[in-house]
Specification:
Blueprint: H1 6-27, H2 31-50, E1 51-52, E2 61-62, H3 63-83, H4 90-109
Parallel strand pairs: 1-2
Length: 118
């Protein structure tokens, strides 16, 4: 069941950007996990603003493609602590796993085929 509209998804995207920006301070991340959080905030903001949905400004990424990007990002976030070697940092590892799971769930619940005009 697709219960998240494009507009609601946009709000969640901006919340994701804010959480990634605050994560290093809130969770005491440093080095690779902190740099990754700041990078993800910037990338997520760019994808959001470039997507063709209510919060997009440039609208060059079709909303279904936005969904496919998130279908890749969710599982990648779960794997990244192990790939980048910070799995021993329990807080950072759990943060990225949780973020990945949330992005997967939001992706499953979002209607990427819905009409996206304001």
């Amino acid at each position: 069941m697709k219960v998240i509209s494009p507009r609601m998804h946009g709000y969640l995207d901006f919340l994701t950007v804010i959480l990634f920006l605050l994560a290093p301070t809130l969770f005491g991340l440093n080095q690779i996990p902190a740099l990754l959080a700041y990078s993800l905030a910037a990338i997520h903001l760019l994808v959001t603003l470039a997507s063709d949905f209510p919060f997009g400004i440039v609208k060059i990424i079709p909303f279904p493609v936005h969904g496919w990007i998130e279908r890749v990002v969710g599982p990648a976030l779960i794997a990244v602590p192990f790939i980048l070697g910070f799995a021993a940092d329990e807080i950072a590892r759990n943060l990225y796993i949780a973020a990945g799971v949330v992005i997967i769930i939001v992706g499953i619940l979002t209607d990427y085929q819905a009409k996206t005009s304001d």
